[in-house]
């Protein structure tokens, strides 16, 4: 095998976990039973040992295309050649009840001509750390390792090398074949995989679910298709049992090929909270916002001392210990492959602003905050009032030491400012006025120490010279007016020094603070580029904003999906797809559409 470009993938999922499906018909990433569970297919991280599930025409498959069935997360991969045309449908039906199994359904049919096909299913349990046995019975197979997987087929199966199961078959126009893979309990066999239900029943139920869900979207603006796809991508990254949103469903995909920044993103960052709530509420998905707020509420309740950590497990667990999977070679040799994320133990002051902004937005557009939640938020705010002057690792989670990052102080200000708004609007107790005093101290300190008068711009750190794309949040969180002279000067500097056309780098490492970790990022941060669009919109530069947004749409993959970063030649880099990017896309599109409508 070989590695597909990251962007040559689609995603399918069942609101518990997700799989990547390549344009070559290979599923090269799937974890079970949840997003952060151990992988069973991970050939995207090691094309020899990682495990895969391939279904494609034998030999030269010709040209391939991918699209989603309209308004769904059901993926259609088409193979076109002189000999014929074949189509594969891939999807994961939603579990029916707490104890239902996770199923992956693959159906291939020929629409023209006559084509031979090959199927190979070769799981590699627990990130390819544990072996398994295989048993094959006619059109069924069971893989038994630390857990069990069952495979059902319409055609005969045979055991292959390396613990795999294979099938070779030929289909003519109008003929089809279905494979269903599912997790099994002890004592179950391949006959338990599909419950005797036909492919068409699974397809219809899954199609109805996604179309019913997206019909709740209230956005009907200029970029409906892009917003709808982003909403569907976000929904597939929600862990239904808790309402948590994963940063991405993948781990280990590199920020540059061959580099060391290969992180595990299968967890929930508090930083995403406010952006998620605003984006979901702004396009009509109050239920998802409510569920995510419920997850956030539980985190605030458990951390009773007021100290929050940057990320949590999707089930709320607090320890996300980081280790290295040395036996995996990494995507195109990009190692180390990291499991877990040590950033959970960092100090990141900006997350307090995200949490309080989320609470403010939910109180305004969702439901009134209750007294018990407010009491927990008060503890968090009191901790922040005592500690906002501390250095931290910042929004980019640097691993070279802490610093006085301007964006961290900015979001600390947001936390105290939003708390004041909530208290005033609801008449909730807010102490002795200390929050207001500390809020004003932060504001004045940013204006004094975060502003570089010689450069004429706000900077990454106090007293520094380097810029930082996180400064784009300043007008978005209403710290400065979008046409404030200091801000406009900063925006112009960011466009000159950090932006390459519409692509925005996080910072310029040649000028950045000594805490900038390791080698420079090779890709531009997708979400920062959408922040730039929103800043231009708020500054009234609507034509410039519209062109920038349209250009950003051109960097999506063929399905409208974005990775964390965009490389120099437009390639996708980092974990894929990334929730924050799609949240920022929705926010930018909604704001610009509204501004254009009132022009």
UniProtKB/TrEMBL annotation:
Listed GO biological process terms: carbohydrate metabolic process
Keyword list, A-Z: Hydrolase
Molecular function per GO: hydrolase activity, hydrolyzing O-glycosyl compounds
Gene3D superfamilies per record: 1.50.10.10
Domain Trehalase-like N-terminal: 5-139
Occurrences of domain GH15-like (ranges): 224-589
A Pfam family reported for this protein in Swiss-Prot or TrEMBL: TREH_N
PANTHER family membership: GLUCAN 1,4-ALPHA-GLUCOSIDASE, TREHALASE
Protein name per the record: Glycoside hydrolase family 15 protein
Organism: Rubrobacter marinus
